[in-house]
Amino acid sequence: MLNENKMTSELIKINSPIYINGKKINNRIHLAPMASLGHIAYRELLDSYGGFGLMFTEMCSAKALPSENPKYSKVFRWRESELEYLICQIFGAQPAEMAKGAQRIESEGFFGVDINFGCSASGICKKGCGAEVLKDPKRAVAIVKEVRNAVDIPVSVKYRTGWEDNPQFPVDMAKRFEDAGCDMLTFHPRVAPDRRRRKPNWSYIKLVKEAVSIPVFGNGDVFSRENCYKMFNDTSCDGALLGRIAISKPWIFKEISDGFDLPDSKYKECAKKMIELIEHYFDETTGIKLFKKFAIYFAANFKYGHAIYTQLTNGNNYDTLKSMVDEIFETTPEITKTPNMNMFI
Questions:
Q1: Is residue 240 domain-shared with residue 288, that is, in the same domain?
Q2: What pLDDT sits at residue 197?
Q3: What local confidence, expressed as pLDDT, does residue 87 receive?
Q4: What pLDDT band is residue 36 in, cutting at 50, 70 and 90?
Q5: How many CA atoms lie within 13 A of 149 on its CB side?
């Protein structure tokens, strides 16, 4: 446990503003982009707790964006009130397509645009997108240059170590991305083929930070306040992006930035609110699927998480889901100090 002076020092850094291409961000812990998890309903839930600096959308296809209709899109959808701190992430294989997608994002009033060079899912990589682009560094740099030339809003890049465990590669790419006009880097120090089988090598974040002058944000296995402080201390990063833990505990940003825990009553309130928001934004078929993706991370908070997950997903309509939440919390399920990582798929 960190002593009081150390905690104060970390809280000061986490809550200190940072500027990206002239735009102010109020603190240094942000919501990472996550497919099927970081949708409009979840972001409104997160907004109700606060404590974050920026939020990232789910990854959007740059090729589809110029004609995408937010009224019907599942991913390119937002609340007007969140645009001032919302970055839209795009994926694609061609510089011109990525630039056009970025222009659409700028026209809608987003804080910035993020280029996805980190997703290692086979469906994305087979299209030559995501982490696959890192196999062709010249094309990756060309994409950043084209996007930078196309918009005035902040341009960020989220990327991995590459396809081999060589720390020099992400360092070299960081320099090239900076030279191409990138304003901010988010670095996830895992090699693409590993997905999440091995722990991220945070020492690589420090190397990237030392190599460039633009802000560098770390990503990977920040699951608690202590993890967050450790990443800041060990890597000297400018900030951190939180992913799966933010789905499990949407109040984690508030707890980290304020330095104290919220009461346990938040669990039931959170589950009920998530269902209500999904019901508001999505049709029932889509919404049930999205809630079930959320539910496995939420259930990881409890000692008998697998049983709770089964209960939470034992329904095919919103009313049944709400009843299941009430049933689960008729008693007080035992909460674990750290979520069950085996449920963090």
A1: no
A2: 77
A3: 98
A4: very high
A5: 11
Task: Mark whether 279 and 137 lie in a shared domain.
Answer: no
Q: Which residues pair with 241 in a beta bridge?
A: 30, 219
Helix (H, G, I), strand (E, B) or coil at 217: strand
Q: Same domain, yes or no, for 129 and 171?
A: yes
In this model, does residue 6 exceed pLDDT 70? no
Question: Which CATH number does the domain housing residue 49 bear?
Answer: 3.20.20.70
Q: Which two tokens stand for residue 179?
A: 């030279």
Sign, CA torsion 209/190/45/254: negative
Q: Domain residues for 277?
A: 266-343
Encode burial over 162-198: b for 16+ CB neighbours within 10 A, e otherwise.
bbeeebebbbebbebbbebbbbbbbbbbbbbeeebee
Q: Which tokens belong to 339? A: 């979520």
Q: What pairing do the DSSP bridges indicate for beta strands 23-25 and 18-20?
A: antiparallel
Closest of 48, 218, 9 to residue 228, by C-alpha: 218
* Amino acid in the structure at residue 191: V
Q: Residue 17's CB: how many other CB atoms inside 10 A?
A: 10
Strand residue runs (E) in 108-209 = 112-117, 155-162, 184-191
- Residue 116 identity (one-letter amino acid): N
Beta strand residue intervals within 81-152, DSSP E: 86-91, 112-117
Q: State pLDDT tens for residues 241-287.
A: 999 999 999 999 999 999 888 888 799 999 999 999 999 999 999 99
Same domain, 215 and 301: no
Mean pLDDT estimate for the chain: 95
Residues 114 and 76 in one domain: yes
Q: Quote the pLDDT of residue 1.
A: 43
Query: Is 60 exceeded by the pLDDT of residue 224?
Result: yes
Q: Are 297 and 339 in contact (CB under 8 A)?
A: yes
Per-residue pLDDT of 121-166, as tens digits, reads: 999 999 999 999 999 999 999 999 999 999 999 999 999 999 999 9
Q: Are residues 120 and 182 in the same domain?
A: yes
* Statement to judge: residues 252 and 288 lie in one domain: no
Q: Which of 129, 143, 64 is nearest to 98 (CA)?
A: 143
Give the distance from CA 245 to its chain's centroid.
10
Of 258, 289, 317, the position where a domain reaches its end is 258
